[in-house]
Design goal:
This protein is an alpha/beta fold. It contains seven helices and 17 strands. A four-stranded mixed β-sheet has the order 1-7-10-9. It has a four-stranded parallel β-sheet with strand order 5-4-3-6. Strands 14-11-16-15 form a four-stranded mixed β-sheet. The relative contact order is 0.13. Bound molecules: NADP nicotinamide-adenine-dinucleotide phosphate (NAP).
């Protein structure tokens, strides 16, 4: 992406005529090498009117937009989210995401960007469209390269650091009923986990685990049997897809038995709880680290 010294990618009226020919050539080569490109709906409308766009006639292009619309060519597809765009391009080794500001924000916010290439044009624009638009978020970067692309322009190459920015403590339980079945909880209706949640101020992990089990299943009759240990994993995002690497959870687990069978979740974020045969639990759990933990303790419960 080309930016002004102060981080604008276009003037307020979408003018990008201040971007040099050398920068375009550099960008065009990167897109042609990758073979594919993702752009936001507004950028698509502007980019496709430029004469240089003919260089991309063989490129598989995905436009991210909320609604379907008629694209200008057969190799131009529409996706309704960044993840859907990447799915459509899953055959490609590298995917170039090239703006505008709104689309850049969507991709970075969802932790879908590995590297960022920024070409700094020798200009300051008092007003305009910023590289990342309208959202309150932050990501840490590592400078991994730099090169001169003309006498007056430099390219900075960053890696987006994916490791966690927040470490939280959670507690939960493996809860067994009289039939030997295990309690499993749905989060947001999109993923399955053992009951657990954040330890609140003033709580120890045992108290927090009992509170979370009650909130997520309605069960209050809990007999503590033993500690099951601690493991770490990243958070599962609300849509249940992949993991949200901005939060690393340290999870403390305990074994309980209960005489209760009736399940009535109180917490609206966890709409469903169910009893599952122990042999089927690992297959149901969404996060691989939850599966791994459960298989490790299965013979001990
Ligand atoms: N300097 C450079 O290298 C460079 C590169 C590219 C673009 N640009 C400039 O950037 C400007 C455009 O940037 P922009 O921020 O205004 O617009 P944009 O990011 O190109 O497009 C925004 C639109 O994309 C769709 N969109 C974005 N994220 C989405 C998501 N998560 N889910 C569904 N749809 C999503 C929405 O389309 P709908 O609302 O229509 O559904 C949204 O209104 C233009 O002036 C362009 O020339 C500069």
């Amino acid at each position: 992406m080309a930016i002004s010294l102060n981080g604008m990618i276009a003037k307020s009226d979408d003018d990008t005529s201040w971007i040099s020919k050398e920068e375009w050539d550099n960008y065009s080569l990167a897109v042609r090498n990758a073979g594919c490109l993702v752009v936001g709906h507004r950028t698509y409308g502007i980019l496709t009117k430029q004469t240089e766009f003919s260089e991309f006639k063989d490129i598989k292009l995905v436009v991210v937009a909320q609604d379907n619309f008629q694209t200008l060519a057969q190799n131009h597809l529409v996706a309704h989210s960044p993840k859907e765009a990447l799915k459509l391009l899953s055959d490609f080794e590298q995917v170039v995401v090239a703006g505008g500001g709104m689309l850049n924000t969507s991709f970075v916010e969802e932790n879908l960007v590995d590297e960022i290439f920024i070409d700094i044009e020798p200009i300051i624009l008092g007003q305009g469209i910023p590289l990342f638009r309208d959202k309150d978020f932050e990501r840490n970067l590592k400078l991994v390269g730099q090169k001169r692309i003309s006498d007056n322009e430099i390219q900075l190459h960053y890696e987006v650091l994916k490791y966690f920015m927040k470490k939280t403590e959670s507690a939960g339980g493996v809860v067994k009923n009289k039939e030997g079945e295990i309690l499993v909880i749905s989060q947001h209706g999109t993923s399955w986990s053992l009951p657990k949640g954040h330890i609140e101020q003033g709580e120890d992990s045992l108290i927090a685990s009992k509170r979370e089990i009650k909130e997520e299943s309605g069960i209050t009759d809990l007999t503590f049997i033993k500690e099951l240990g601690t493991y770490e994993r990243f958070k599962i995002p609300k849509d249940g897809q992949g993991e949200d690497r901005s939060e690393l959870k340290i999870i403390h687990m305990f074994l309980y038995t209960t005489n209760e069978k009736n399940l009535k979740p109180i917490d609206l974020e966890n709409p469903e709880a169910k009893w599952v045969n122990p042999q089927e639990v690992a297959d149901l759990l969404t996060h691989p680290k939850d599966k791994e933990f459960f298989l490790k303790i299965l013979t001990a419960i």
